[in-house]
Amino acid sequence: MVLATGDIVNIDIRAIAERSKQASHAVARLNEAQKNAALDAMADAIEKNSAAILRANADDLTTASTMLANGEITASTFERLKLAPSKLSEMAHSIRSVAALADPVGRILERTQLDDGLIIEKVSCSIGVLAVIFEARPDAVTQIAALAVKSGNAVIMKPGREVEGTATALVETLRCALRQCNIAEDAINLILGREAVQQLLSISDLVDLVIPRGSRQLVEHIQGNTRIPVLGHADGICHVYVDAAADPTMALAIIDDSKTDYPAVCNAAETALIHEGIAREFLPQLATRLEAKKVKLLGCEKTRAILGDVVESVANWHTEYGDLVLAIRVVRNMDEAIDHIHRYGSSHTETIVTNDVNAAARFLNEVDSAGVFHNCSTRFADGYRYGFGAEVGISTSKLHARGPVGLDGLTTYKYVLHGEGHVVGEYRKGARNFKHKRLS
Amino acid sequence: MVLATGDIVNIDIRAIAERSKQASHAVARLNEAQKNAALDAMADAIEKNSAAILRANADDLTTASTMLANGEITASTFERLKLAPSKLSEMAHSIRSVAALADPVGRILERTQLDDGLIIEKVSCSIGVLAVIFEARPDAVTQIAALAVKSGNAVIMKPGREVEGTATALVETLRCALRQCNIAEDAINLILGREAVQQLLSISDLVDLVIPRGSRQLVEHIQGNTRIPVLGHADGICHVYVDAAADPTMALAIIDDSKTDYPAVCNAAETALIHEGIAREFLPQLATRLEAKKVKLLGCEKTRAILGDVVESVANWHTEYGDLVLAIRVVRNMDEAIDHIHRYGSSHTETIVTNDVNAAARFLNEVDSAGVFHNCSTRFADGYRYGFGAEVGISTSKLHARGPVGLDGLTTYKYVLHGEGHVVGEYRKGARNFKHKRLS
Asked: Is A400 inside any structural domain?
């Protein structure tokens, strides 16, 4: 069901959630071929219905250009809203690439013989109803819908307000494709507006997981206002630690890439921690390299003592700059680096540059982040680069799914027990005994 | 740190959480031998300090006997409070058996070559700080503490009020054992009283997971009052579905065991769903079998038409009786049985009795519960019987850990990436390409 903005006050979000739950049971039962056929139909439908989708997008852009003129949205948000035929082809291609991924449902994760004729299997299965609240990006609609279908879940999407018309056209197109495949169209639902989200967050008996994509404020607001589990992404305050035993050339390249390859994204580094044993030699080289790329440097007192007062001091080590700004701190040793990361980081991704394998092992073991890297850029923290094919987001939550969340993160498991009339009383009486033999 | 009840108003729960977080980093770093040595020391200490623990327990029992007389607690709660030297030996034995389990931390769950010299590993690791809120059982203290240490987590425990003195003596004993092993004693903390719990639930930046054990009301209250992820256990409304192709003798034995082996626990069955094709023959046999065991039968209209009006009707299919009471419903087919389970169940454990392998496969696939069983009793849903060695509880949450939660459920994972100076810019420019070769 697609709701127009004008209906928000009167619609019954609970009814949508109930239909989603019904549809979730239906999509959970689909086999791999059926899900892939649905994804192919969804991709085809996006291409065939491109004229209507582009018209809806043009309307969104008209509204958005006024918002841009009034300073309500940024130029980059406006740019991300824009669709073109080539962009629709990319979206269709991306849906087909999800079809090409392995089915995450029905995998036997563990298998144990409990006794003769009594075998337990831990089997991956879909979660149920996902609620995804996301930013104003049209391609998020098709990406999230494709991941939901492939993982056998129903999804209720709430897009950013600037993209509501485009999202409505896209969801109508995708639901039509599901109908053509005789799949419950309520596997893909759209709701619009904040009030609808508030209502949805109260329906903990039907919605199984909320995935908010957006600011930390949004994630924290949602965590504080629902009993539904939340798979959230806080900040991306990533660190590069340059150890005393680092290759300086490698360290320069890794800091450069971690900071400048794409500064606006969450896996870009915000802070470099430099071992004091190499700081005096290394920092001037780093300053030269980064200033050539127009990176503004901020530093601790020791950094400023080496690089001079042109480097401003750091106001807050918790800051995610998301821009060509790097905070630098000279640390006495790895303990101080790890302590800094635990104190100021967001448990996203941290990397150590060192040729000392013991130092690397200790860093990788002790740092409590979703990604801990050795001699490579923080920018590798990404579902595509990890080989997941697609991601629904990056989780800085520790529970359930951590780091880039692909199809596996959209599944849970159940225990399937195969018996031949086994009852517990016989084991309690000692007539039978468990064998507990791990089979796989 | 152990807090006496009288201090509750003034103590700083945040300070305890901060010390727990510090300690969690220390226990996360321990290797398997160090953790096992700590567990052995904990077990020894319980035995050596038995006199003091039993004295504290005697004081709890004095208070509890007044509560029992006033009807504030039940006779079974009073019984569960009682310690004796033999019970302390059992608790020590149980701690040592956790030491014997495989280390859940540091296991390489997946390994993928992203490119030459660039290898990613998904590695199990501890979660951090656990908060466990539990009932008035002394052995829960040692069981939870042992599982926390073995999984490399710090734990803050909040026991039921009737067991506060005993829990305090036990925790002091366990902390003393940690000190002797040069392990941060703040890995095991105790807080007392409801107000302390309320404060703890607000500390989402330090506490990583809350595990409430107790009533559904408790679990829902906690889910509604914290941003910390909650691993909860709702009701145990388990079902036995007797298919048209069931062996009646097996079905009788499985319903009998599922209902009567231990009716008070969550994996006991509350409802039997009987296919109408066999109901007329099967129900009288079932009534004879269960009435001999003093089980009170409740039924739907069709059941009462067969068994007669001596069978009362069912007031609410959502009820967890936890007693020798069984609700019976005659269903037209498996779809109706599955629909009943999804509508009235608690997603805990359901079993199908049938000799039809296709029917079994469909039931196991379509029923959305933590445990789905074929031809065996619901009572097998238990960490010990599953071969986990020990469990911290049974989760009816779908996220993170589902079903009996053993050591694995107290871990999360991180992605460890080993490189040789790899940067993302080269892949973006097309100078290098990912290989994504799964190694294990």
From this structure: no
Q: How far, CA to CA in Å, does B64 sit from each of A160, B72, B81?
A: 57, 9, 9
Least confident of A364-368, B230-234, B411-415: B230-234
Look up residue A25 and give its two tokens.
């049971």
Structural domain includes residue B415: no
Full DSSP string of A71-112: TSS-HHHHHHH---HHHHHHHHHHHHHHHTSPP-SS-EEEEE
The H or E element spanning position A241 is strand A238-242
Q: Closest CB to B127: pick one of A376, A386, A398.
A: A398
The domain in which residue B356 lies consists of: 238-385
Domain count, chain A: 2
Q: Are residues A56 and A175 in the same domain?
A: yes
Instruction: For residue A123, give every residue at least 6 positions away whose Cβ sits within 8 Å of its Cβ, in sequence order, or none.
Output: A106, A107, A108, A109, A413, A414, A415, A416
pTM for the full predicted model: 0.91
Residue of B284, B315, B322 whose CA lies nearest to B299: B315
In angstroms, the separation between the Cα of residue A313 and the nearest Cα of chain B is 26
Q: How far apart are CA B93 and CA B95, in angstroms?
A: 5
* Alpha helices, DSSP H, located in A261-374: 276-291, 301-307, 334-344, 357-366
Q: From CA B360, how far away is CA B337, in angstroms rounded?
A: 13
Neighbour-count burial of B192, counting CB atoms closer than 10 A to its CB (0-12 exposed, 13-18 middle, 19+ buried): buried
Q: Which residues of A touch B420 (CB under 8 A)?
A: 375-376
Map tokens 């796989």 to a residue. Answer: A440
Whether B80 and B212 map to the same domain: the answer is yes
Q: For residues B351 and B343, is the Cβ–Cβ distance under 8 A?
A: no
User: Do A185 and A318 share a domain, yes or no?
Assistant: no
Query: Looking at residue B187, which CATH number applies to its domain?
Result: 3.40.605.10
pLDDT of residue B7: 43
Q: A20 with A92, same domain?
A: yes
Please indicate, yes or no, if residue B334 is contained in any of the structural domains: yes
B contacts of A261 (beta carbons < 8 Å): 423-425, 428
Rounded-to-integer distance, Cα B83 and Cα B109, Å: 41
pLDDT at B343 over 90: yes
Quick check: A374 and B28 CB within 8 A?
no
Is there a single domain that holds both residue A176 and residue A282? no
Q: Note whether B114 contacts A418, CB cutoff 8 Å.
A: no
Q: Examine the domain organization and report whether B344 and B255 are in the same domain.
A: yes
Tens digit of each residue's pLDDT (9 = 90 or more) over A376-422:
999 999 998 998 888 888 898 889 999 999 999 999 999 999 999 99
The mean per-residue pLDDT over the stretch A425-434 comes to: 95
Element (H, E) at A8: none
Are B203 and B280 in the same domain?
no
